[in-house]
Amino acid sequence: MTSSNFIVRCDDWLIDRVFQPIANRLPAGLSAVQLGLSFQLGSLMLNGAALLLPIVLFGVTLGGLVDTALIWFMNLAFFLGMKKTIPLIRPGMMNPLRPMMLSMRMIAIAFLIYQLFRGLDGVGIGWILSQLMTLSQLTFVMGLYFVSCQPQPPRQRMSSRTGPIIEGVWSTGGRIN
In the prediction, which pLDDT does 55 show? Predict the structure, then answer.
């Protein structure tokens, strides 16, 4: 087995064994796509907070402001792009974002692992900012996985009428009265 096959298997295992069962148990009013986009928006807000705190606490230079703004606007562009792809996801059909977002999920997991190691040796405000970025990256990864989950098929409406299903001569046992 090649390393790419192993990575795809691990990704499929994560979706099928961890995130899809959670998505299947969501309430009727909340789909996995909506939950994933909510995680993405939360990640965007946490990322913005982690990028703005050093500017507010330690002052700002023009270079730092431009750099921070560009990073945040790239994250915003990705979020808006994800919102545009939501009409592609239809109940009862395969989710096209699952294969399309495979490389993005792998890159996001790599950055999450990097951020976890980076956050281990912080001191003071640096540690807090690192933890905010780690939380932001974790919510980003969770959002990607929930958006990639298979949507639930539409629920069938049950008849509210009770009684025999077949009416007519069959309801009397086949006897004609």
Answer: 80
